[in-house]
Amino acid sequence: MRRRPRVLLAAGALGALALGAVAYAATALATRDRVPAGVSVAGVQVGGLDRAAAVRLLQQRLAAAPATVAVRVGVGTARLDRVGAGLSFDPERVIGDIMGGPLAPGAVWRRLTGAGDTVVAAADTGAGTGTARLTTALAAVARRLDVPARAAAVTFGPAGPAVSAGSLGTTVDVPAAVRVVAAAWLAAAGPVALPTRSTEPPVTRAEAERALADIARPAASGPLTVVVGRPGAGRRAVVPVAALVPALRLAPQPGAPGRLALHVDGAVLRRAVLVAAPGLESAPRDARIVLRRGTPQVVPEVDGVALDPAALAAAANAALLAPARTATVVAVVRRPPLTTEKARALGVRERVSTFSTVYPPLADRTNNLRIAARTVNGTLVLPGETFSLNEVLGRRTPEKGYRQAPAIDGGRLVEDFGGGVSQMATTIFNNVFFAGLQDVHHKPHSFYISRYPEGREATVNFPTVDLVWRNDSPHGVLIQASVTSTVNVSFWSTKVWDVKAEKGPRTNYHIPKTVHDPRPGCVPQGANPGFDVVVRRLFYKGRTLVRTQSFSTAYSAEDEVICGPDPAGDG
User: Does residue 570 fall inside a structural domain?
Assistant: First the structure.
C-alpha cells in the first residue's frame, strides 16, 4: 500500500515528458522549413525565409551574377574571374547546412530564437578545396594592386646631396581578403574593398639623414685625386666635383638591411678621369706583318694600358671618405688580339701566288684602281677568316677619292664612281685560284673582256655583287697589291698546293648586234661574241693530282653601241 504514490508520481512524470516531447516535436516540425533570422549567404539576406524561398532567392542571384567580381585597394581596382576564383556554391546544400536537422536541438533553438548576424561565406562550396582557388586568385590580384613601400634615399643634385623621404607601402592581407570576398561577393553593389596592411620602407628617413651627414656630404665635398700607376711611369688626374658627383650614389649596404653605403660607378668615374687626363689610356695595337725588301717581317705588338672600372670604384669608394681624398690604382696592361707570338706562328714566309693584269690608259679608271690597291694592300687574312672585297673597300664614293669611270651595268658600259675596281677583283681572284684557297662567291663579267683570262675573272658592284673567298689553309695570308704599268696582287703565306689551270674550248657562241643610242651619257663599246667556257683548277701535291674543281662561265655577246641616232631610222 505504501508504494502506490511513487507509482503514480512516476507515471505523472512520464506523462509530462511525453507531453513535452510532443510539444518539442510539434515546434521542430513547425519551424523546420524556416531559415534562422539574421543569416546571410555571400551577402544575400536569407534569414526568416522558408527553405524553398531562400534556395530560390540564392538561385536567382547566382543566375544573375556577372562573370567577374570587382575588388579594389584604394583607387586601384581589379576583377576576379568568378568561376576561376571558385565564387560559386550549391544553394540547396548551403541552406541545408544552415538549417541543420529538423529535430536537432541546436538547429531548433536557432530557428526559434534567430541566429543573430550570421554571415555564411560561399566560395568553392562543394568542391572539396575550401577557398584554395579564391586564395590563389587574390594573391595574383595583390601582386597588381600592392603599393610597395618607397625607401628613403639620398640623391646628388646640382645644389648638393639631399634626402628624399620614403613612404609606407600597402599590401593586401590575402587571408582576410579571402574571408571578406567570400562573405560579400554575391550581393556587393560595387567593388569589394580588400583589407590591407601597411609595410615599412626598407630604408627609413632617419637612416637617410644619417647617411647624408656621414657619407654623402663628405663624399661630395671636393675634387678627387686619382693617381694611376703604369709600367715605368705614373700620372695624376684631378676630377672636379661636378664631374665626380654623377658617379656617386648611396645604396643599401650588402649584409646590412636598412643601412646605406657609398657606391661609386667605376665606368662613369673612368670617363671623368680620362677627361681630366686624356692621354692616360692607350689602345693596344696588333702585331703586323709587312714586306721589307721582298721579305715578310713581323712588326711587334704594342700593348695598351687601361683603367679597370671595378678597381677604380673600389679605390675611390675608400678615398672619398678619407681626409686626403686620393685614390691610387694600377693601370691594366691590355694585349692586342694578334700578339707578336701569334703573328710569327702564322707562317707568312713566302709568296704562294702572284698575278698581274694590264689596264687601259684612262686616268679616272687608274685613279680608282690605285685607291683600291692602297686599301687592300697589307690586309692579313687569318686562318678560317673570310675576305670580302666590298667589305674591305666599302662604298666607292667621291669622298674617298673615287671618280666616275666606265663600268658594266645591264650589259652596257656606263659611267659610275669606282669604275674599274672590278680589275682588282679579277687580279685577286686569280691569286685565290692559284693559291688553292676556297672560292666562296665570285661573279664573272656579263661579257668577256679580252685583257682578262677567260673563265678566270670576277666583277664587283657595291653592295650587290661581291668577291668573297675563305682562307681554308692553316696559315695566314698577307695580300700585297699595287698599280704600276699593270695591276699587281701577290699572296704571301706557306705553300700548301701546287695549282694549275686547264681551260676547255669555247662553245655555244652568241652573235652580237648593233645598237644606236642617242641618249646623253651614252658610252660607245665594240662588238664581241658571247660564248661558254669551262676552266678546271687542278690541285697537286708534288706531282700527284689530289683533286680538281670546275668553273663554268657563260658570257653574253657584247653588243656594239654607237652613240647617236640610227641613220636608217625614221627622221
Answer: no
* pTM for the predicted model, two decimal places: 0.63
Please tell me which residue, 125 or 253, carries the higher pLDDT value.
253
272 shares its domain with 244: yes
Do 375 and 462 share a domain, yes or no? yes
H or E segment to which residue 40 belongs: strand 39-41
Range(s) of the domain holding residue 4 = 1-27
Do 503 and 544 belong together in one domain?
A: yes
Can you state the angle between helices 132-145 and 174-184, rounded to 10 degrees? 120
pLDDT tens, residue by residue, 369-424: 999 999 999 999 999 999 999 999 999 999 999 998 878 776 667 778 878 899 99
Provide CB contacts within 8 A for 353, sequence distance 6+.
430, 431, 432, 433, 434, 435, 490, 491, 499
State how far the Cα of 261 lies from the Cα of 254, in Å rounded to an integer: 9
Residue 278 lies in a domain: yes
Q: Which three cell numbers stand for residue 558?
A: 657584247
Instruction: Tell me the H-state helices in 306-414.
Output: 309-319, 340-344, 363-376, 389-393
Considering the domain architecture, whether residues 336 and 461 belong to the same structural domain is answered as: no
Number of domains comprising the chain? 4
Question: How many CA atoms, within 13 angstroms, populate the side-chain half-sphere of residue 493?
Answer: 28
Q: How far from 396 is each of 30, 429, 482, CA to CA, in Å?
A: 106, 20, 18
Hunting for cell 682562307 — which residue is that? 471
Segment (H or E) for 63: helix 51-64
Contact predicate 175/188, CB 8 Å: no
